[in-house]
Amino acid sequence: MVQKWPGCDLLEYEAGIDPVPSFSDTVLQVMWHSHPQGSKLSEFWIYRSAEPDGSRRYNRIGVVKVVFANAQDTVFIDTEVKTEQRYSYYVTAVSKEDKESVSSDTVWYILDPEAIPLYPPDNYTITDTIITFEWSYSDPIEPGVYILRIEQFYDENYHPLVYADYHDSMYEGHMSVTLAEEWMKSPTYGVPFRWRLDCIGDDELHRGSESDWRFFNIELE
Questions:
Q1: Is the pTM of this model over 0.85?
Q2: Measured between alpha carbons, how far is 151 from 138 in angstroms, rounded to an integer?
Q3: SS3 sequence, 49-87?
Q4: Longest CA span, the chain
Q5: Could you tell me which of 127, 136, 148, 130 has the C-alpha nearest to residue 213?
Q6: 219 and 188 in contact (C-beta within 8 Å)?
Q7: Residue ranges of the domains in the chain?
Q8: CA atoms of 7 and 105, how far apart (whole Å)
Q9: Class of 8-111 per CATH?
Q10: Which DSSP helix (H) or strand (E) runs through 187?
């Protein structure tokens, strides 16, 4: 299994068990390493436990087919989860003879409520490179740290990272961060941007959330 590591949320590619941006706050990505004997496999089985310590009651919740031995799909998206509930996962490999392997190691995560992006609103056009980003958090227990993440969006397969950094919470339920033009890493004007907020819980590797995306354009006069 692929577990998160410190700072991985600031990278271009976010690997490991992690929330997934959506229009609900109930989606988790589970990831594992490619199997060295992929040509002998037919599929992977994903198991999950909702026990507080993850020690028992694992049920199979999904199947991922092995279509290409050298380019295995090693990601499962779990949409049947709730916030503030611990979920533990492991994966087994199933051979073409329907023999199941022993279980992998186990990873776990707790989804927190999402931050709410406020400004710039979706599909907004900005005429300056100095931008103030605003968001709110309605849950009584506010996270100590947020990550503001901005990407340039060409399509679903290509959306290079242009900014990602930690911002300490003010614990007021509302935050704003102003970025000057230095925040951009060689952007292409005329191509839309998208931004979101990650909430970092008291355990960065096992707890947090990601808001849905908001899109904006920059048109300099």
A1: yes
A2: 25
A3: ECCCCCCCCCEEEEEEECCCCCCCCCEEEECCCCCCCEE
A4: 64
A5: 148
A6: no
A7: 8-111, 116-218
A8: 22
A9: mainly beta
A10: none
DSSP assigned state of 122: T
Task: Please state, in angstroms and rounded to a whole number, the distance separating the CA atoms of residues 62 and 213.
Answer: 26
The answer to whether the 8-111 and 116-218 domains have the same CATH topology is yes
CA atoms within 13 A on the CB side of 40: 9
**Structure-derived torsion over alpha carbons of residues 187, 188, 189, 194, reported in degrees to the nearest 10:** -60
d(CA 67, CA 46): 17
Task: Give, for all 221 residues of the chain, the pLDDT tens digit.
Answer: 999 988 999 999 888 999 998 776 679 999 999 999 999 999 999 999 999 999 999 999 999 999 888 888 899 999 999 999 999 999 999 999 999 999 999 999 999 999 999 999 999 999 887 899 999 998 899 999 999 999 999 999 999 998 999 999 999 999 999 998 677 666 677 899 999 999 998 899 999 999 999 999 988 76
CATH of 116-218, one of 3.20.20.60, 3.40.50.300, 2.60.40.10, 1.10.246.130: 2.60.40.10
Cβ contacts of residue 53 below 8 Å, gap of 6+? none
